[in-house]
Amino acid sequence: MKKKQLLGILLAGTMMVGAAVPVFAADGDRVKITYAQWGNETETAATQAVADKFNSEQDKIEVEVVKIDHDTYVTKLNAMATAGELPDTGIMSEAGVLKFAENGLLADISSMYGEGDAKPLDCLTFRYDGTPVAYSAANEVLNLWYNNDLLKEVCEKQGIDPSEVTPPADAEDAWDWDTFVQTAQKLTLDINGKNALDPDFDPDNVDIYGCTINTLPWQLEVWAKSNGGGYYSEDGSECTIDSPETVEALQRIADLSDVYHCAPPVTSAANALESSLGSKKVVMATDGAWNVGTFLGPSADFDYGVGVLPYMKEKVTICTGGPNVVFSTTEHPEEAMEWLKWYYQEENSWSLIEAGTWMPILDSWYTDPEKTDKWISNPNYPDKDMYKSAVVDYAMNNAQSTSWYYVNGTEEFNATLDSVFSSVWAGEETMEEAINENLEELQDIFAENNG
Description:
This is Sugar ABC transporter substrate-binding protein. By secondary structure, the protein is of the alpha/beta class. The protein has 16 helices and 13 strands. Strands 6, 7, 8, 9, 10, 11 and 13 form a seven-stranded mixed β-sheet that branches. Strands 2-1-3-12-5-4 form a six-stranded mixed β-sheet.
């Protein structure tokens, strides 16, 4: 992807939900702004209903939602940018924000929140050259989820106390990597009922696996960070994918299957919770908090729990969340920011938060006990104290930004990594061999987008 290009990525849809209310009658003194989104007709109507509520609560600004088809969203925005006809505000994907910022198309939003305001968590701030250009509309962090029914079943067969192998919910008690691997081996059973620590264990005939790690490249970055490395330097100025710490961390993921036999071989889509925990053949799996609302809460037919990730050197998780932006071409940046600041309020996306699909972005929902209790006291969630410690506190104290918050070109970089890693998952190469063979291409992608 060359610098002169605008955004060239596929965006994924998001729907904001709100109760429909009568539209406040606009008069000539109102500033009219537009908000672009890619939903279908139903989603667009729901988003406009939220905008109508905003319009009815004040008499300075009127927001109109502009529907752009999902499949042509990027093309349309590019054409609108070329013609100088971008909307005032709009939704974007995480990986596309900095490309638009690089081309001067996003406004500085550092004045959106003032002193005394509840603010988005710092890790949810997209920055270009140090300047905030977007905030995520929702928060998502990575955790270790587990099928508690299956865990107890394996423990009963092995004569193990479940408390000895239940993932810790507190970062203070997080398993180090060796403990995690050994625990996963205890929970891995072959068809003869022997676990992966038994010398007579049959790795070719595994019945239940102790764990699986989501191998989407953006999620694998958390292990590099945990091991003191990363795909990039902390300031995003250097590509460090070949650092010893990063290579070692990623090799450890492959070793779970190839060496320790406690994780299934990696295949496409095999890491999603629906196909791992949902198969009832995997006890523990890593993935994002959105799964509470998309799978675990509404459709999982087993008791589930959540813990913090194991760690290699640092106790860390990563966060992400699709952002809304103010386009720099708007004639009304202050009004656009006022609309988005209102739109970001949790009550305007409450149905998604209540379901467990989204986590709040404002710090007060993590620090104010009354707000936190309102958020997590609901039947879709696991035990409240468990979730508070493993997700809420963990997100507040241990989350770092995923690299697309501060590095450009991550969509192309991660797509290339996905191909690079495939030979490692197939057992054809070590992680060091695969990365070194493709290092020049990876470094070129980084340089072209961050020069």
